[in-house]
Amino acid sequence: MTRGWMIVLVGAAAFAAQIVLFSFSLYRLAIQRNRKPFLATDPNMPKVEDERIRQIGEWFRSQPFEPVEIASEEGLKLRGQYLEPEEPSDRAIVLAHGYSGKGEDMAYFAKEYKERGFRVLMPDNRGHGQSEGAYIGFGWHDRRDYAAWIDYLIRRIGPQAQIVLHGVSMGGATVLMTAGEPLPEQVKCVISDCAYSSAVGILAYQLRQMFRLPPFPLLPLTSMICKLRAGFFFGEASAVRQLRQSRLPILLIHGGDDTYVPTAMAAEIYDAIPGDKERLIVPGAQHGMSILTDPEAYWETVMGFLRKYLNHGAAAFPAREPVQRGAPLSAWVPAWSGPPTLRKE
Protein backbone atom coordinates (compact mmCIF):
# COMPACT_ATOMS: atom_id res chain seq x y z
CA MET A 1 0.00 0.00 0.00
CA THR A 2 1.37 3.40 -0.95
CA ARG A 3 1.93 6.21 1.52
CA GLY A 4 -0.84 8.19 -0.19
CA TRP A 5 -3.41 5.48 0.35
CA MET A 6 -2.32 5.13 3.97
CA ILE A 7 -2.98 8.81 4.53
CA VAL A 8 -6.40 8.52 2.90
CA LEU A 9 -7.37 5.51 5.02
CA VAL A 10 -6.15 7.09 8.25
CA GLY A 11 -8.02 10.27 7.41
CA ALA A 12 -11.21 8.35 6.59
CA ALA A 13 -10.95 6.38 9.84
CA ALA A 14 -10.43 9.56 11.84
CA PHE A 15 -13.43 11.19 10.13
CA ALA A 16 -15.61 8.14 10.80
CA ALA A 17 -14.52 8.13 14.45
CA GLN A 18 -15.47 11.80 14.77
CA ILE A 19 -18.92 11.09 13.33
CA VAL A 20 -19.46 8.21 15.77
CA LEU A 21 -18.30 10.34 18.71
CA PHE A 22 -20.58 13.18 17.63
CA SER A 23 -23.47 10.72 17.39
CA PHE A 24 -22.89 9.64 20.98
CA SER A 25 -22.76 13.30 21.97
CA LEU A 26 -26.01 13.92 20.10
CA TYR A 27 -27.65 11.05 21.99
CA ARG A 28 -26.52 12.55 25.31
CA LEU A 29 -27.71 15.98 24.23
CA ALA A 30 -31.15 15.04 22.92
CA ILE A 31 -32.18 11.68 24.37
CA GLN A 32 -30.35 10.94 27.61
CA ARG A 33 -31.96 12.20 30.79
CA ASN A 34 -30.03 15.26 31.96
CA ARG A 35 -30.35 19.01 32.12
CA LYS A 36 -30.90 20.71 28.77
CA PRO A 37 -29.30 24.16 29.17
CA PHE A 38 -29.41 24.76 25.41
CA LEU A 39 -33.19 25.27 25.66
CA ALA A 40 -32.66 28.44 27.69
CA THR A 41 -30.52 30.02 24.98
CA ASP A 42 -32.31 28.75 21.88
CA PRO A 43 -33.56 31.83 19.98
CA ASN A 44 -36.53 29.81 18.67
CA MET A 45 -37.80 29.11 22.19
CA PRO A 46 -39.98 32.00 23.42
CA LYS A 47 -39.60 33.21 26.99
CA VAL A 48 -42.46 33.59 29.47
CA GLU A 49 -42.28 36.46 31.94
CA ASP A 50 -41.26 35.51 35.47
CA GLU A 51 -44.34 37.20 36.91
CA ARG A 52 -46.67 35.03 34.88
CA ILE A 53 -44.81 31.91 35.95
CA ARG A 54 -45.00 33.04 39.57
CA GLN A 55 -48.75 33.65 39.40
CA ILE A 56 -49.65 30.29 37.94
CA GLY A 57 -47.18 28.65 40.33
CA GLU A 58 -49.06 30.17 43.24
CA TRP A 59 -52.32 28.75 41.88
CA PHE A 60 -50.72 25.33 41.49
CA ARG A 61 -49.42 25.33 45.07
CA SER A 62 -52.82 26.43 46.38
CA GLN A 63 -54.61 23.41 44.89
CA PRO A 64 -55.06 20.03 46.63
CA PHE A 65 -53.16 18.04 44.01
CA GLU A 66 -52.80 14.38 44.90
CA PRO A 67 -49.55 12.60 44.01
CA VAL A 68 -50.38 9.44 42.02
CA GLU A 69 -48.25 6.60 40.69
CA ILE A 70 -48.49 3.72 38.25
CA ALA A 71 -45.98 1.30 36.73
CA SER A 72 -44.95 1.15 33.09
CA GLU A 73 -44.90 -2.11 31.16
CA GLU A 74 -41.18 -2.38 32.01
CA GLY A 75 -41.78 -1.70 35.68
CA LEU A 76 -40.72 1.97 35.79
CA LYS A 77 -42.47 4.07 38.43
CA LEU A 78 -44.46 6.76 36.65
CA ARG A 79 -45.71 9.62 38.78
CA GLY A 80 -48.15 12.44 38.28
CA GLN A 81 -50.47 14.96 39.89
CA TYR A 82 -54.24 14.47 40.12
CA LEU A 83 -56.88 17.11 40.92
CA GLU A 84 -60.63 16.83 41.44
CA PRO A 85 -63.07 19.58 40.39
CA GLU A 86 -65.40 21.29 42.86
CA GLU A 87 -68.38 19.17 41.79
CA PRO A 88 -68.45 15.42 40.97
CA SER A 89 -67.68 14.79 37.30
CA ASP A 90 -67.08 11.92 34.91
CA ARG A 91 -65.00 14.14 32.60
CA ALA A 92 -61.21 13.97 32.86
CA ILE A 93 -58.36 15.66 31.03
CA VAL A 94 -54.90 14.10 30.69
CA LEU A 95 -52.32 16.87 30.16
CA ALA A 96 -49.07 15.91 28.43
CA HIS A 97 -46.07 18.20 28.96
CA GLY A 98 -43.24 19.05 26.59
CA TYR A 99 -39.61 18.10 26.07
CA SER A 100 -37.49 18.10 29.24
CA GLY A 101 -40.46 19.36 31.25
CA LYS A 102 -42.78 17.97 33.89
CA GLY A 103 -46.49 17.67 34.56
CA GLU A 104 -46.55 20.82 36.66
CA ASP A 105 -45.67 22.80 33.52
CA MET A 106 -49.26 22.24 32.39
CA ALA A 107 -50.71 24.09 35.40
CA TYR A 108 -52.18 26.92 33.31
CA PHE A 109 -54.19 24.33 31.37
CA ALA A 110 -55.12 22.52 34.58
CA LYS A 111 -56.59 25.71 36.03
CA GLU A 112 -58.93 26.23 33.11
CA TYR A 113 -60.03 22.61 32.90
CA LYS A 114 -60.67 22.34 36.63
CA GLU A 115 -62.86 25.44 36.51
CA ARG A 116 -64.73 23.84 33.61
CA GLY A 117 -65.54 20.82 35.76
CA PHE A 118 -62.85 18.39 34.65
CA ARG A 119 -60.78 16.04 36.72
CA VAL A 120 -57.15 16.80 35.89
CA LEU A 121 -54.26 14.37 35.54
CA MET A 122 -50.77 15.73 34.83
CA PRO A 123 -48.26 12.87 34.45
CA ASP A 124 -44.50 13.25 34.46
CA ASN A 125 -43.31 11.40 31.37
CA ARG A 126 -40.71 8.66 31.81
CA GLY A 127 -37.31 10.31 32.06
CA HIS A 128 -38.92 13.52 33.36
CA GLY A 129 -39.91 15.06 36.67
CA GLN A 130 -40.53 12.55 39.45
CA SER A 131 -40.95 9.59 37.10
CA GLU A 132 -38.25 7.00 36.62
CA GLY A 133 -36.44 6.46 33.35
CA ALA A 134 -33.05 7.28 31.89
CA TYR A 135 -34.09 8.67 28.50
CA ILE A 136 -36.57 10.89 26.67
CA GLY A 137 -38.89 8.81 24.50
CA PHE A 138 -40.16 11.53 22.11
CA GLY A 139 -43.66 10.12 22.60
CA TRP A 140 -42.96 6.58 21.44
CA HIS A 141 -42.68 4.56 24.64
CA ASP A 142 -44.72 7.31 26.31
CA ARG A 143 -47.75 6.35 24.21
CA ARG A 144 -48.01 3.08 26.13
CA ASP A 145 -47.49 4.90 29.42
CA TYR A 146 -50.39 7.22 28.61
CA ALA A 147 -52.55 4.22 27.77
CA ALA A 148 -51.75 2.97 31.28
CA TRP A 149 -52.71 6.36 32.75
CA ILE A 150 -56.02 6.13 30.85
CA ASP A 151 -56.67 2.73 32.44
CA TYR A 152 -55.87 4.27 35.82
CA LEU A 153 -58.50 6.98 35.30
CA ILE A 154 -61.14 4.49 34.21
CA ARG A 155 -60.51 2.42 37.32
CA ARG A 156 -60.78 5.53 39.45
CA ILE A 157 -63.81 7.17 37.79
CA GLY A 158 -65.66 4.12 36.52
CA PRO A 159 -66.85 2.94 33.10
CA GLN A 160 -68.81 6.18 32.61
CA ALA A 161 -65.55 8.17 32.37
CA GLN A 162 -65.13 10.62 29.48
CA ILE A 163 -61.44 11.19 28.89
CA VAL A 164 -59.70 13.81 26.74
CA LEU A 165 -55.98 13.94 25.91
CA HIS A 166 -54.37 17.38 25.57
CA GLY A 167 -50.64 17.79 24.94
CA VAL A 168 -48.25 20.60 24.05
CA SER A 169 -45.06 20.29 21.95
CA MET A 170 -43.60 16.82 22.64
CA GLY A 171 -46.77 16.26 24.66
CA GLY A 172 -48.78 17.10 21.55
CA ALA A 173 -46.89 14.46 19.59
CA THR A 174 -47.28 12.02 22.48
CA VAL A 175 -51.07 12.25 22.55
CA LEU A 176 -51.17 11.83 18.76
CA MET A 177 -49.06 8.69 19.00
CA THR A 178 -51.28 7.50 21.84
CA ALA A 179 -54.32 8.04 19.61
CA GLY A 180 -52.98 5.36 17.27
CA GLU A 181 -53.13 2.73 20.01
CA PRO A 182 -56.20 0.51 20.68
CA LEU A 183 -57.73 2.75 23.34
CA PRO A 184 -60.90 2.13 25.38
CA GLU A 185 -64.16 3.79 24.39
CA GLN A 186 -63.87 6.19 27.33
CA VAL A 187 -61.29 8.21 25.37
CA LYS A 188 -63.42 10.66 23.41
CA CYS A 189 -61.02 13.01 21.59
CA VAL A 190 -57.52 14.49 21.41
CA ILE A 191 -56.15 18.05 21.42
CA SER A 192 -52.60 18.50 20.16
CA ASP A 193 -50.81 21.85 20.39
CA CYS A 194 -47.61 22.55 18.36
CA ALA A 195 -46.72 18.88 17.86
CA TYR A 196 -43.96 17.59 15.60
CA SER A 197 -44.85 15.09 12.90
CA SER A 198 -42.10 12.60 13.78
CA ALA A 199 -38.94 12.28 15.85
CA VAL A 200 -36.87 12.01 12.65
CA GLY A 201 -38.46 15.16 11.27
CA ILE A 202 -37.91 17.32 14.35
CA LEU A 203 -34.41 16.00 15.04
CA ALA A 204 -33.33 16.61 11.44
CA TYR A 205 -34.78 20.12 11.64
CA GLN A 206 -33.03 20.87 14.93
CA LEU A 207 -29.74 19.42 13.67
CA ARG A 208 -29.82 21.98 10.88
CA GLN A 209 -30.96 24.79 13.17
CA MET A 210 -28.44 24.20 15.95
CA PHE A 211 -25.40 22.86 14.13
CA ARG A 212 -26.00 23.60 10.42
CA LEU A 213 -25.49 19.88 9.77
CA PRO A 214 -27.33 17.48 7.43
CA PRO A 215 -29.24 14.58 8.98
CA PHE A 216 -27.14 11.92 7.24
CA PRO A 217 -25.15 10.12 8.56
CA LEU A 218 -25.57 11.50 12.07
CA LEU A 219 -29.25 10.71 12.62
CA PRO A 220 -29.07 7.06 11.47
CA LEU A 221 -26.04 6.48 13.70
CA THR A 222 -27.63 8.23 16.68
CA SER A 223 -30.81 6.26 16.05
CA MET A 224 -28.85 3.02 16.33
CA ILE A 225 -27.36 4.21 19.62
CA CYS A 226 -30.86 5.10 20.79
CA LYS A 227 -32.11 1.62 19.92
CA LEU A 228 -29.30 0.05 21.94
CA ARG A 229 -29.67 2.34 24.95
CA ALA A 230 -33.32 3.36 24.97
CA GLY A 231 -34.99 0.58 23.00
CA PHE A 232 -36.37 2.47 19.99
CA PHE A 233 -35.30 3.75 16.61
CA PHE A 234 -36.10 7.37 15.79
CA GLY A 235 -38.14 6.19 12.82
CA GLU A 236 -40.59 4.42 15.11
CA ALA A 237 -41.66 7.63 16.86
CA SER A 238 -43.96 8.98 14.16
CA ALA A 239 -47.19 10.77 14.96
CA VAL A 240 -48.11 10.74 11.26
CA ARG A 241 -47.85 6.96 10.99
CA GLN A 242 -49.70 6.35 14.25
CA LEU A 243 -52.54 8.61 13.19
CA ARG A 244 -53.34 6.36 10.24
CA GLN A 245 -54.60 3.85 12.81
CA SER A 246 -56.68 6.35 14.80
CA ARG A 247 -60.37 7.11 14.47
CA LEU A 248 -60.54 9.62 17.32
CA PRO A 249 -61.61 13.23 16.66
CA ILE A 250 -58.52 15.46 16.78
CA LEU A 251 -58.06 19.21 17.21
CA LEU A 252 -54.69 20.53 16.02
CA ILE A 253 -53.38 23.87 17.28
CA HIS A 254 -50.18 25.54 16.11
CA GLY A 255 -48.60 28.96 16.25
CA GLY A 256 -48.30 30.74 12.95
CA ASP A 257 -44.78 31.95 13.83
CA ASP A 258 -43.46 28.73 15.38
CA THR A 259 -39.82 28.28 14.39
CA TYR A 260 -38.99 25.60 16.98
CA VAL A 261 -41.48 23.07 15.63
CA PRO A 262 -42.20 24.56 12.21
CA THR A 263 -45.83 25.33 11.46
CA ALA A 264 -45.59 23.28 8.26
CA MET A 265 -45.59 20.14 10.40
CA ALA A 266 -49.18 20.93 11.41
CA ALA A 267 -50.25 20.55 7.76
CA GLU A 268 -48.45 17.22 7.49
CA ILE A 269 -50.18 15.97 10.64
CA TYR A 270 -53.58 17.32 9.61
CA ASP A 271 -53.44 15.51 6.28
CA ALA A 272 -52.64 12.24 8.09
CA ILE A 273 -55.75 12.31 10.31
CA PRO A 274 -58.33 9.95 8.81
CA GLY A 275 -61.29 10.88 11.02
CA ASP A 276 -62.97 14.04 12.32
CA LYS A 277 -60.49 16.87 12.62
CA GLU A 278 -60.21 20.58 13.22
CA ARG A 279 -57.29 22.97 12.97
CA LEU A 280 -56.47 26.30 14.61
CA ILE A 281 -53.48 28.33 13.47
CA VAL A 282 -52.85 31.38 15.66
CA PRO A 283 -51.08 34.16 13.74
CA GLY A 284 -48.07 35.63 15.48
CA ALA A 285 -47.82 32.81 18.03
CA GLN A 286 -44.42 31.28 18.66
CA HIS A 287 -43.79 27.76 19.92
CA GLY A 288 -46.23 26.76 22.64
CA MET A 289 -47.52 30.33 22.91
CA SER A 290 -50.87 30.10 21.15
CA ILE A 291 -52.62 30.00 24.52
CA LEU A 292 -50.94 33.30 25.49
CA THR A 293 -51.12 35.00 22.12
CA ASP A 294 -54.90 34.62 21.81
CA PRO A 295 -56.29 32.86 24.89
CA GLU A 296 -59.90 33.78 24.15
CA ALA A 297 -59.81 32.16 20.72
CA TYR A 298 -57.81 29.24 22.09
CA TRP A 299 -60.37 28.31 24.73
CA GLU A 300 -63.38 29.08 22.55
CA THR A 301 -62.02 26.65 19.98
CA VAL A 302 -61.11 23.98 22.54
CA MET A 303 -64.43 24.12 24.36
CA GLY A 304 -66.42 24.21 21.13
CA PHE A 305 -64.55 21.11 20.00
CA LEU A 306 -65.18 19.29 23.28
CA ARG A 307 -68.91 20.04 23.23
CA LYS A 308 -69.18 17.96 20.06
CA TYR A 309 -67.71 14.82 21.57
CA LEU A 310 -68.53 14.84 25.29
CA ASN A 311 -71.96 14.03 26.63
CA HIS A 312 -74.33 16.67 28.02
CA GLY A 313 -73.51 19.24 25.32
CA ALA A 314 -73.14 22.83 26.49
CA ALA A 315 -74.23 21.86 30.00
CA ALA A 316 -70.96 20.00 30.35
CA PHE A 317 -69.11 23.29 30.75
CA PRO A 318 -70.10 25.79 33.44
CA ALA A 319 -70.61 29.31 32.17
CA ARG A 320 -67.89 31.84 32.86
CA GLU A 321 -67.69 35.58 32.55
CA PRO A 322 -66.63 36.56 29.04
CA VAL A 323 -63.11 37.88 28.71
CA GLN A 324 -62.44 40.72 26.33
CA ARG A 325 -59.63 39.97 23.90
CA GLY A 326 -56.62 42.15 24.69
CA ALA A 327 -57.66 42.69 28.33
CA PRO A 328 -55.91 41.18 31.38
CA LEU A 329 -56.97 37.55 31.57
CA SER A 330 -57.02 36.78 35.29
CA ALA A 331 -59.68 34.16 34.58
CA TRP A 332 -56.92 32.04 33.03
CA VAL A 333 -53.50 33.36 33.89
CA PRO A 334 -53.33 36.97 35.13
CA ALA A 335 -52.06 39.59 32.68
CA TRP A 336 -52.11 37.33 29.60
CA SER A 337 -53.50 38.98 26.48
CA GLY A 338 -53.20 38.58 22.76
CA PRO A 339 -53.91 39.87 19.25
CA PRO A 340 -57.42 39.78 17.85
CA THR A 341 -56.93 37.65 14.75
CA LEU A 342 -56.61 33.95 14.07
CA ARG A 343 -57.23 31.44 11.32
CA LYS A 344 -59.59 28.62 12.12
CA GLU A 345 -60.35 25.70 9.82
Structure description:
With 345 residues, this protein is of the alpha/beta class. Helix 1 packs across helix 8 and helix 5 crosses helix 6. It is globular. The protein has a 9-stranded mixed β-sheet, with helices on both faces. The chain is built from 12 helices and 9 strands.
Number of strands: 9
* Poorly predicted segments: 321-345
Major β-sheet profile: 9 strands, mixed
Strand proportion, as a percent range, falls in 15-25%
Shape: globular
Q: Please bin the fraction of helical residues.
A: 40-55%
Secondary-structure element series: HHHEEEHEHEHEHHHEHEHHE
Overall pLDDT metric: 89
> Which assembly state applies to the chains in this document?
single chain
CA radius of gyration: 21 Å
User: How many separate helices?
Assistant: 12
The largest beta-sheet arranges its strands as 1-2-4-3-5-6-7-8-9
> Helix/strand-derived class?
alpha/beta
**Terminal CA distance:** 66 Å
Keywords, separated by commas or semicolons:
alpha/beta, nine-stranded mixed beta sheet, 345 residues
Please outline the helices and strands.
Elements: H1 3-30, H2 38-41, H3 50-62, E1 66-71, E2 77-83, E3 91-96, H4 107-115, E4 119-123, H5 140-157, E5 162-168, H6 170-179, E6 187-193, H7 199-211, H8 218-230, H9 239-243, E7 250-255, H10 264-272, E8 277-282, H11 290-293, H12 295-309, E9 343-344
Parallel strand pairs: 3-4, 3-5, 5-6, 6-7, 7-8
Antiparallel strand pairs: 1-2, 2-4, 8-9
Helix pairs in contact: 1-8, 5-6
